[in-house]
Specification:
By secondary structure, the chain is mostly helical. Helix 8 crosses helix 9 and helix 8 packs across helix 11. The protein folds into 2 domains: 64 residues; 207 residues, MetI-like fold (Orthogonal Bundle), CATH 1.10.3720. The N terminus is likely disordered. The chain is 80% helix and 0% strand.
């Protein structure tokens, strides 16, 4: 059906030749940028993303795809500009209020319990199976329960985030604390260092790559959990609220604008943590220059 609607584009051989040539040129440029070091290496992903957006625009407009199915990026940008105030309120409610609080509580609790479990081994043996069980529980099953327990405000969203982020942080921290080599532990014992001194001077530094791994995983889980939780009850603001209400009104351009805000937010959070990891753990073999 869509191909019949877009027969003009399908028969425009010159345009298809242009797209093919542009694709081959982009392939060559990306191959060259793959070997570039330093900040310039970010040009590759940025150029690839821009090319995908342009292709999206060309195909949706050329084949006259109904906007209710997939609006072109230009229409999404227009909806973003027209609803900027509402999108900012949604961002503030979802990210600055719910996500940050739940993320800090969940990651902090997971880290502290991991220290306790490392000190008390039977606690670790009891918690790790629960972590596997919690990872299999769908967020759509947790969210309505938390809304009933904690109400419609940010507390229920933070509770969902805590459930989703606690065990990844716990498991990564425990794995990191156990990553110190035996010869290093023996050296600390030869210096007469006790448990807490060894923890602070050796085991926690060795665990930093694992800690950042847990933080990066949780940065995306927290955002997903907050948005899904808002589907089941929230004040009249929030990304999840905006998506659910605008889908019901068939305003797919606003829905995609909200999705773009969420995707950009998640990417920035993950990128900030990755940058911090690179600076804090520059000594790690994975970050050393060859």
């Amino acid at each position: 059906m869509l191909l019949r609607q877009g027969h003009a584009l399908a028969q425009a051989g010159g345009l298809w030749l242009y797209l093919t040539g542009a694709t081959l040129l982009l392939w060559r440029v990306l191959a060259l940028l793959a070997g570039v070091a330093g900040p310039a290496r970010l040009a590759g992903p940025a150029l690839f993303g821009l090319a995908l957006v342009m292709l999206w625009e060309i195909l949706t407009r050329g084949f006259q795809v109904p906007t209710i199915l997939l609006p072109p990026p230009g229409l999404v940008a227009t909806a973003f500009a027209a609803n900027a105030a509402d999108l900012w309120d949604d961002f503030r409610q979802t990210v600055l209020i719910s996500v940050l609080r739940g993320y800090l509580i969940g990651c902090g609790a997971g880290f502290l319990v991991a220290i306790l479990a490392d000190r008390v081994p039977f606690l670790a043996r009891g918690l790790l199976p629960l972590g596997n069980l919690a990872s299999a529980v769908p967020v759509v099953g947790i969210a309505p329960i938390m809304v009933m327990w904690f109400g419609f405000d940010w507390q229920s969203k933070a509770a969902v985030i805590v459930v989703m982020t606690f065990f990844p942080m716990l498991i990564n921290t425990l794995a990191g604390l156990q990553s110190a080599e035996r010869i290093q532990l023996d050296l600390m014992r030869s210096y007469g260092a006790g448990y807490w001194r060894t923890l602070a001077m050796l085991r926690l530094p060795c665990a930093l790559p694992f800690l950042f791994n847990g933080l990066k995983i949780n940065s995306t889980l927290a955002l997903i959990g907050a948005i899904v939780a808002e589907f089941f009850g929230t004040p009249v603001v929030g990304m999840g609220f905006r998506i659910s209400t605008q889908v019901a009104r068939m305003n797919l351009d606003v829905v995609w604008a909200t999705i773009a805000v969420a995707a950009l937010t998640g990417s920035l959070l993950y990128g900030a943590l990755a940058l911090a990891e690179r600076h804090v753990t520059a000594w790690h073999p994975s970050f050393r220059k060859r």
